[in-house]
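Protein modeling request. Please complete all fields; requests missing the sequence field cannot be processed.
Requester role: graduate student
Desired output: 3D structure, token encoding
Chains: 1
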Amino acid sequence: MDDTVVGWGLAIPTTTEFALAAQVSGGITLLVALLTLVGFGFGWGIRFRLVGITGFLALVTGGLFALGLTPVTRTVIPNARPYTTVYDGGGTQAVIAVAADITPEQLAATLQQAANNLFSYGRLAKGEAVLTIRARTLLHPEPGVTEPVYLGQVRRSLRQRQDPAMVIELDTQALARVQQAQAGS
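Delivered output (185 residues):
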């Protein structure tokens, strides 16, 4: 069975594939390092460029090795709609943009998916370690005017990957307003 995770139309390599790439890159790095030593032994003019190439390959190998240790996955929640991250400063606040024709069920699933995908232990949290992700869409009440409308939010812990106390709040008035605007256009 193919265990490649697909997200946003791109196939994301698995940790096994990154580990294999790290091994191949490590072998190439060792060969170039050996070539660098030979270049110094024979006084080749290219020997200092080979030092730079060897250093760069070592950096690439280290990065591939790190990606081989950490899973690179995206959560797929049934009924979730595509979203775009509009704001994420790496702290406790993020904003996603969703389509205006989203239903309340789809919005709840999309917020849950965003909460799982945007979770990171490395987020900067001062005081309360809670990530809040707000979902918004854009309305155009008249030509040349764009109004952001916040449809809901999710609050989740920044300390637990699987947060059983995740809270999803939908703004039913804003959803009704957006649906009314969709019906009117």
